[in-house]
């Protein structure tokens, strides 16, 4: 469920008409619903009721400070993959003791900053990273609490570019070498082994890959305890999918995911960490755009809008499906369109052969499920300004990221003296 609904024939975000925001802010823009963010957080927490549990929002899905702060205020932790994301999480009000640091290429500077901040856990992904972290922690007079990210070699059955748990992926340590590497870590003065971590991919719509990975990890935890390691934390990662196509896609609900996870790993008595990103923010956001032209091609109609692939790259990068709807309902006339943007790339296409209400220049449309990996992956390609982000709360809204001017963009460049 989300809070983007039609009232009297017009799409509203909570209690505000989308049209009203468009008139005041201009298009295109991202719009997020506070109530949807909070509801998604609470639903996931309820799925793990009765467990020692911490939800750590995967900040990479949407790094806007207002979004992170909204989740922080209801108790969320954070999963971060860079110093920048760590700084964002801390500044948004997430306590360091609720932050886990993932990623395959943590630098010395990033490790030192995270150690100084006092984060809960490093998810270590390689032996070189382990030794570097130990050395830096020892030099700082600190001890780094860690979990190793284990690659369980499970096919997540998702898009190849977002699958992370197979043997050929760059992430984690092979399950076959886990016990030897834990033994190595136990000898290091700057390291305290406390957990096991895994993450097999994103946008999973089937529980079976999760279940297989969790069974393999549960067995590993028992082996590690037999080896003498005090394993008290189990980080199960994220990856539960959302319904981009609400007519045909029915991913498992968080309550079903939680029931499965508790059945497989609940007996271990570990603190369970879950790192959802897309599930919290994906359906809490829309991208609002205006029709510039309708164009009759040789064999198709083009709906040319003012949003582009630099604003939302997922359709171009992943061939991703996003539901597209008219902001003003029209239940009478419909047409079939290729929905395209103004960037000089054939890949600047949001949908092909999509049946939509009949639209004309100046009409507004909304691209749904755009709260995750939308604004955060945007760019200024073609010197197009980054678009505003809006956060709605009931009857009120705030621009939580302004649209920069052309001068703001161009003045980032510096002309060397020899060209003056």
What would you note in describing this structure?
The chain is α/β, with parallel strands linked by helices and 420 residues long. The protein has 2 domains: 157 residues, Lyase, Ornithine Decarboxylase, Chain A, domain 1 (Beta Barrel), CATH 2.40.37; 172 residues, TIM Barrel. Helices cover 28% and strands 25% of the residues. The protein has 12 helices and 21 strands. The strands form 3 sheets. Strands 4, 14, 15, 16, 17, 18, 19, 20 and 21 form a 9-stranded mixed sheet that branches. Strand 17 and strand 18 form a beta hairpin. Helix 5 crosses helix 6. The radius of gyration is 23 Å and the shape is globular. The chain starts with a strand and ends in a 10-residue tail after the last helix. About 2% of the residues have low confidence.
Overview features:
420 residues; alpha/beta; Lyase, Ornithine Decarboxylase, Chain A, domain 1; TIM Barrel; 2 domains; eight-stranded parallel β-barrel
Main beta-sheet annotation: 9 strands, mixed
What is the number of strand segments? 21
List segments where confidence is low: pLDDT < 50 over at least 5 consecutive residues: 161-167
Question: Which structural class fits the helix and strand makeup?
Answer: alpha/beta
**Mean pLDDT score, rounded?**
94
Beta content comes to 25-35%
Provide the CATH topology of the largest domain.
TIM Barrel
Overall tally of domains: 2
């Amino acid at each position: 469920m989300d809070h983007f609904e039609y009232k009297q024939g017009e799409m509203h975000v909570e209690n505000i008409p989308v049209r009203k925001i468009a008139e005041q802010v201009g298009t295109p823009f991202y719009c997020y619903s506070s109530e949807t963010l909070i509801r998604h957080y609470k639903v996931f927490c309820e799925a793990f009721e009765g467990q020692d549990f911490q939800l750590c929002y995967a900040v990479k899905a949407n790094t806007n400070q207002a979004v992170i702060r909204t989740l922080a205020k209801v108790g969320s932790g954070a999963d971060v993959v860079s110093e920048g994301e760590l700084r964002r999480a801390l500044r948004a009000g997430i306590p360091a003791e609720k932050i886990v640091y993932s990623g395959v290429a943590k630098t010395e500077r990033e490790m030192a900053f995270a150690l100084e901040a006092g984060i809960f856990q490093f998810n270590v992904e390689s032996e070189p990273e382990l030794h570097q972290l130990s050395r830096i922690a020892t030099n700082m007079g600190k001890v780094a609490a860690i979990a190793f990210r284990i690659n369980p070699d499970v096919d997540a059955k998702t898009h190849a570019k977002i699958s992370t748990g197979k043997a050929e992926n760059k992430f984690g340590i092979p399950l076959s070498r886990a016990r030897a590497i834990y033994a190595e870590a136990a000898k290091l003065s700057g390291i305290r082994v406390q957990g096991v971590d895994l993450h097999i991919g994103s946008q999973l719509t089937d529980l079976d890959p999760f279940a297989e990975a969790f069974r393999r990890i549960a067995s590993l935890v028992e082996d590690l305890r037999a080896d003498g390691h005090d394993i008290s934390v189990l980080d199960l990662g994220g990856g539960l999918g959302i319904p981009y196509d609400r007519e045909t896609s029915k991913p498992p609900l968080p309550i079903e995911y939680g029931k499965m996870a508790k059945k497989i790993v609940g007996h271990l008595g570990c603190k369970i960490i879950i790192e959802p990103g897309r599930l919290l923010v994906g359906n809490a956001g829309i991208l609002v755009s205006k029709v510039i032209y309708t164009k009759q091609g040789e064999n198709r109609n083009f709906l040319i809008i003012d949003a582009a692939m630099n604003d939302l790259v997922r359709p171009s990068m992943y061939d991703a499906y996003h539901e597209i709807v008219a902001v003003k309902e029209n239940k009478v006339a419909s047409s079939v369109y290729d929905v395209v943007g103004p960037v000089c790339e054939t890949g600047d296409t949001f949908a092909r052969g999509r049946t939509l209400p009949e639209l004309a220049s100046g009409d507004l449309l909304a691209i749904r499920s755009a709260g995750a990996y939308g604004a955060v992956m945007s760019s200024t390609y073609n010197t197009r300004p980054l678009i505003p982000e809006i956060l709605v709360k009931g009857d009120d809204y705030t621009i939580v990221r302004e649209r920069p001017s052309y001068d703001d963009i161009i003045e980032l460049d510096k002309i060397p003296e020899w060209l003056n």
